[in-house]
Specification:
single chain; 372 residues; alpha+beta; eleven-stranded mixed β-sheet; four-stranded antiparallel β-sheet
Length: 372
Amino acid sequence: MTRTFVYSISAEESGTKITDYLRNHGYSRHILTCLKHTDDTVLVNGLGVYMNYVLQPDDRLTIVIPEETPSEHIVPVNLPFPVVYEDEDLMIINKPSDMPIHPSIHNYENTLANAAAWYFGQKGENFVYRCINRLDRDTTGLLILAKNRLSGALLSRMSAERKIHRQYLAIATGEIPKCGTIDAPIARACDSAILRQVDFVHGERAITHYRLLKFDGFYSLVLLQLETGRTHQIRVHMNHIGHPLPGDYLYNPDYRLIKRQALHSCRLTFCHPISGKPMDLLPRFRMILKHLRADAWNFINMQITADALYDQIVIRKMILPFDQNGSDHTYFFDADRKSSSAGCVIFLIKIPVCKRLFAFTQKHTRIKGTSL
């Protein structure tokens, strides 16, 4: 969608060319080139100017970012598209299982992109598909879609710089240690375009932090934090330490309890790319439990309530999440490749303990630290 931004130039910001000013605000080279070659997209005090205009105190700079050519080759299909949060710049989707992110061979009309095309088509808005973080086909949970060029560029940069923090809930086979870090490189398996494996020779570094929430005698409910974002990272790492996810058709095809990998993206924390406000998105806990108990998760005798889940995840586990001082195990499989972070994860947002009670009757998503 086309997006308009208005900037009031202060005395400290004056004397700067528009190109440099916008570059300092995160505008990519591609966007700057587009503005340069598109009429009526750069205005100062209501008048069109060139990009080399030198800004003066109290100037009012208006930038109109035109949308790219709509994603015409993505077929709109009426599929589940649970919107957790939406504003002019981004939206958060709670992706269902059995839904690929992008169209591909044999997956032309069953993807999140198809659902997004239908959603925007019903609203009469131009649609360009910009998915920032990816989830595997059968992994459920939160992911980000950017709604314009600038938010897309900024969110992609934040993702590359690991400024978008992701947490997952999973069921793992057996009893895992209380908490720890898995630091083991991942590479594509030989003779396979899909399978990944831990590979200390050819692999890229991959770091996963985990914490045990509950053990029922057979399976563990696990909270996981990714420090890197390798393909199948959680699934490969948990399998590597001997606690694979049930229902994982690639790494643990045990379907007695569940027909897909027991993995859910439950939380995203990041700063809004435009406003800079901290955002902490966590769907209502009854929604999380719905995902946990779907697809035969109810056969796993976890007996955990929404209140207990909120208490364990938000109050006790995320104020100082994955603090290595309390870790029982840290999996460094290569003595020459120690983790520079020592397993600690720094969050953009600290959760106030006073906000312990969760309003289950709320119709909207819990968003901490923002009034958007």
